[in-house]
Amino acid sequence: MLEKIFGTFSTRVLNALCGFITLWIGTRYLGSTAWGIGGTVLVDVTLLLIGVELMAGSGLIYFTPRKSFRTLMKTSFLWIFLVISVYSILFYVLSFTPALNVFVPEGYEVILLILVFVYSFHNFNLNILIGKERVNTQNIIFIIQFMTQMLSMIGYIFILDIRDARAFVYSLLTGYITGCICGFFTIIKYINDDRHESLKACMKEMLHFGTIIQLSSLLSLLNKRLSFYFIKSFSNISDVGIYNSGTQVSECTKLIGHSIALVQFSKISNLKDEKKAAQLTILFLKIAVAATLFFNIILCVIPTEVYSWIFTDAFSGIRIVIITTSLGMAFMAANMVFSHYFSGINKPKHNLIASAVGLVVTIPSVSTLVPLYGIAGAGISFTLTSLATIIYQWIVFKKLSSTKNRELLPTAEDISLIKKEIMSFLTKNGSRKEKNEVQ
After folding, report:
1. End-to-end CA distance of the chain
2. Whether pLDDT at 390 is above 50
3. Which domain range does residue 125 map to?
4. pLDDT digits 0-9 by tens, 102-114
5. 3-class secondary-structure state, position 85
């Protein structure tokens, strides 16, 4: 288990490093306006993916051990083509009105649809691998994707001399295509899994599970999208670029919680013992929150001058974004652990309710704080929203698992278990090293 967490964490660290390099190049050679457009496109991709992931998203992780691969593939692929067709028609109709470009940057409508289409298949591959507990293989595919993204953006800027948001958007597409092709060859062997199942029944079950998860994702995304909207309305697109950059730096610490939660979801989805699932969740929760908070504190104490030197003076406001979102990132780590627990035990409705609770806090806080404090107000709103979300999740988790508040405190048993996992990990990797040296 620790090997998978370490492998996933290492992948996320490398992703964060590549993201930092991408951010540095983007802010220096594309500017805040272009970076704001690029960030908006990326958020729009995430928003449109919610429709696709109703039956071709993270719910696949839960269903992969329970359904045949062919059934999942047929269901997911049919759904992807259907949803993209609906989006295309909707975009065409809205193109005759000003409404489309309120949310989608002008000139990026077609490539946005292509990005969603390609990423849908790429995401299918990754989720199947996690569901099969092939987390390390999934990590390799993910590395290929984001490394290709970074290198291609460098090529678009310095070789093809594209110095606007297209450089970032084209790099996303290049990374998605490369990752999708590589991922396809890792899962193709499952095509022989042809257990006879009712396609209609499977679609109904997946749609019910996926609808709850994606409604939760939609509400969570609205929390972020509302901040972008209010910053743009009360300031300008340049401040959106600064806020987006600040959250990108702050979200580097989120990779800790994401790494742990990803392995947790893969593990719990294949478990039948809910008591053990709850125990694992508590342990993962403590580690994720403590580690995320520690690294966020480090980011907060870095002087403004350092951020200005790295990203230019135009992005000096990044530090205030990091400070105001740092505590929220620790809450987000807890949110990811709880969310994957509820999904893993087939109770995703609690994630939806938690997201709704967060939105109830977001709407008044962002509409009040952003006009008063700008990007700092958006950061404070994010933290308040994250806090409200995990308060609800903790209450429900305690009720379902009969957990007490005192169990949040680190115990000797926790330390012993972590030590045991570390020793097992070191012994296993030491044996591999010796074997390789002999060979």
Report:
1. 27
2. yes
3. 2-428
4. 788 888 999 999 9
5. helix
pTM: 0.67
Helix (H) / strand (E) containing 40: helix 31-56
Q: How far is CA 27 from CA 20, 36, 38, 244, 247, in A?
A: 10, 10, 11, 11, 14
Judge residue 213's burial from the number of C-beta atoms within 10 Å of its C-beta, 0-12 exposed, 13-18 middle, 19 or more buried: buried
User: What does the alpha-carbon distance between residue 276 and residue 280 come to, in Å, rounded to a whole number?
Assistant: 6
Residue of 348 and 221 predicted with greater confidence: 348
User: Sign of the C-alpha dihedral, residues 50, 252, 1, 268?
Assistant: negative
The model's pLDDT over 247-297, given as tens digits with 9 standing for 90+, comes to 877 777 776 777 777 777 777 777 676 777 888 888 888 888 888 888 888
Does residue 434 belong to any structural domain of this protein?
no
For CA atoms 76, 81, 86, 87, the dihedral sign is: positive
- Residue 436 falls inside a structural domain: no
Is residue 394 domain-resident?
yes
The string of DSSP letters for 199-253 reads HHHHHHHHHHHHHHHHHHHHHHHHHHHHHHHHHHHHS-HHHHHHHHHHHHHHGGG
Domain count of the chain? Answer: 1
CA angle (429, 432, 436) in 5-degree steps? 140
pLDDT digits (tens, 9 = 90+) for 47-94: 898 888 888 887 788 888 878 888 899 899 999 999 999 999 999 999
**Please, which residues have CB within 8 angstroms of residue 277's CB and are 6 or more apart in sequence?**
268, 271, 341, 344, 345
17 assigned to some structural domain: yes
Cα R_g (the chain), whole angstroms: 22
What is the rounded CA–CA span in Å between residue 164 and residue 256? 32
Cα four-point dihedral sign 216, 220, 221, 223? positive
